Amino acid sequence: MGFSFDLTGRTAIVTGASSGLGARFGQLLAQSGANVALAARRKDRLDTLAGELGARATAIQMDVAREADVIAGYDAAEAAFGTVDTIVANAGIDGAGMATDMPEDEIERTLNVNLKGALLTAREGAKRLMAAGQTNGRIVMIASITAFQPSPGLAAYSASKAGVVQLGRTLAREWARRGMCVNTISPGYIRTDINADWFDTDMGKKQVKRFPKQRLMGQEGLDAMLLFLCSDAAEFVTGTDFVLDDGQTL
Description:
CATH class: Alpha Beta
Number of helices: 8
Oligomer: single chain
């Protein structure tokens, strides 16, 4: 029997959708039939993307580190499309800097956006799914290979992403009997707005040369897994972290 990753009838929210992977995820879900609430702090960029996607998309200004913003964001998504049943917690910042040099406020900001933001996004969606009595929820949180690979200069970022992986497993267990599937994706290094400057440096180029395939991943490398985890085909998949890294950690 074949499986379909057609998302027609689903309503999704994608955080961090103003650029990079989040923008791609929003496009992918909309093109696969879902209604998509594009959420980020930079609404001007969201408006442009939503305009390109048409009636399937709406732009929502939302800071995932603020619970009031998250609640308001879900309210706006529901006003546009109804109950959100597909949640992609993607918002994140790099928080780069050696552990002894990072200012306290930057450590706090990194943990707030990457970890606290993922929790606030996931739990608000779960609360509403439970209240609506829906049992087909899909929650996907974006972690990183730095969650388990020591990465000097990314102490706060790595810790936040390790937290996301464990958060995914814990929420999957908490909500297992409520019909929700909660999983994480740990991508390898992909060129995005966050890291483009680094990979243009000599040190960044040397890092790429150390990878087994001596290349950065393309953003399209996450497409199939994201669609699967957001679809009905993933009914029996929960509490799992999927490492998609082009062999970078080998």
